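To whoever picks this up:

The parser on our side crashed when reading a file containing two proteins. I've narrowed it down to the boundary between the first structure block and the second sequence. Both blocks are reproduced below exactly, byte for byte. First block:
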Amino acid sequence: MKVINLSEQNSVLNQYLSEIRDVDIQKDPLRFRRNIERIGEVMAMEVSKTLNYEPKDVQTPLGVAKVNTISDTLVLATILRAGLPLHQGFLNVFDRAENAFLSAYRRVNAKGELEIVAEYMAAPSVDGKTLIVADPMLATGMSMEVGYLALLRHGKPTHAHLCCTIATPKAIECIRETLNDSPDVTIWCAAIDPVLNDKKYIVPGLGDAGDLCYGIKVHLSDR
């Protein structure tokens, strides 16, 4: 399994990353969502360099141009709700892709352990296709793991790109172990942060991506 940390390169992506982390800029949800979306667009361009291409003849007003175009069939998947802006960034670039949506949320079980509950999925077959899963925060890796394994019930992709804004080494190792270090999986990160706090949020991270995008949610314990 290959892991690519895009913050190791100097690019405009680092500017967008700095802004989604900034507590003052975070006060503007529209700007926060757009920066997440722009990270998705930049990351999609990087992913596009790894895809398969084939030549295509294109008729212009003056002749025929030969252009290499993507030959892979793409499926873009995301985990609701926080993944929507990142997903949109990828969709802006891969505008002909099929789409998949999954729901997942954290819950503390009777043993006091954190678990991920998945309740909804709308997805095409991923069999023989290139799968891209966009999830902004790869904290424990559990949401990405649950979502990816659920999608595998719809077939086996030729390659999977698991894409996030910020990850932790723990989450990456969790996915590596679950997927047996598969060479058919690539993890893409805009940054890798070192640790989680006691609430399983990434530090320094950026906070709760879903709340920053769409407003603070009511927890079951608050009702």
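<<boundary where parser fails>>
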Amino acid sequence: MGERTLRGARLGGQSFEDERGIEFAARQQVGYKCPQGHGFEITMSVEADVPAVWECPRCGAEALSTSGIVKEEKAEKPVRTHWDMLLERRSIKELEDILTERLELLRGGEIGPAHLHRPRKTKSKKSA
């Protein structure tokens, strides 16, 4: 008997309920126009926040609202460089002192590449 109840019904969610007595939500038509000149309308709820930009169904470009809604510009933070982050931790005077100290150590041979500061051993020639 379970098979008979589905006989004749199509897949895809066809509803057998009657639409009488149902009150639909208030709707509005919002117009958009893309840079290619394609114009189209989207049906939205009256309560919905209408976006300023919508993707064009024909070409995929960003279509702007014809009702004058302006796209919000997001405030972008300036790019922070390594120098900016260093200046947040140290003052210029501190950096100059550290540089002077490190240069003295480098020139004295205490730091840096070994081949630049340590005397090389020369091979002595053996007499035969």
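After patching the parser it read the second block fine. DSSP finds four helices and four strands in the chain. The mean pLDDT is 83.
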